[in-house]
Amino acid sequence: MTKEDEDFMLDNIVTFLIAGQETTAISWRSASWNWPDTRTSWKVLKETLRLYPTAPGTSREVSDDMTIGGYNVPGGVIHVFDSYVCGRLDKFFKDPQKFDPDRFHPDAPKPYYCYYPFALGPRACLGQKFAQMEAKVVMAKLLQRFEFSLVPGQSFDILDTGTLRPKSGVVCNIKHRSNQMM
């Protein structure tokens, strides 16, 4: 392996770990607005990412002219897909402003191509599985040991800095659980 190859590999590993940590932290902060129990944490994380995707969208360049659903899409143009807006469209989600983790129950209908917090296809986020597993483990461990409650009067406003995050952070009261959940 050449020095260039080693540097390239190291850069990718650092990017993977840093991006995964930021995604997990932002997801966790947004999910904390709706504290789940450990049995439903995966559904809460998915619903949180529907309403508050860490990245507000993605873009793709269409190389050739094409027609999709009767619409002419010109080649050579960059198209932007907004996952924040798409997750709030009643065309895809019933009562889209409502926080409803049961949308992601295994038996619930799955709308396609409208839920993509990590993008889709061959250029989807490399760290998607890692970030989701990390978030589930962190959430489960914290919820086993602590009880969380939001301090009243907090804003649900978000800040877009390339990634979406709670504008004023999330302020919680935390106390040890008297009965450790298993």
What's the gist of this structure?
The protein is an alpha+beta fold.
Overview of the molecule:
Helix 1 packs across helix 2 and helix 1 crosses helix 4. It contains four helices and eight strands, in the order H-H-E-E-E-E-H-H-E-E-E-E. Strands 1-4 form a two-stranded antiparallel ribbon. The N and C termini lie far apart (46 Å). The protein is of the alpha+beta class and 182 residues long. 34% of the residues lie in helices and 19% in strands. A hairpin with a 3-residue loop joins strand 6 (158-160) and strand 7 (164-166). The chain is globular, with a radius of gyration of 19 Å.
| Estimated helix fraction | 25-40%
> What's the rounded overall pLDDT mean?
81
Give the spatial strand order of the biggest sheet. Answer: 1-4
How many beta-strand runs? 8
Structural class: alpha+beta
* End-to-end distance: 46 Å
Defining traits:
alpha+beta; two-stranded antiparallel sheet; two-stranded antiparallel ribbon; 8 strands; 34% helix
List the helices and strands and how they pair.
Elements: H1 3-31, H2 41-51, E1 57-62, E2 66-68, E3 71-73, E4 77-82, H3 83-86, H4 128-145, E5 146-150, E6 158-160, E7 164-166, E8 172-176
Antiparallel strand pairs: 1-4, 2-3, 5-8, 6-7
Helix pairs in contact: 1-2, 1-4
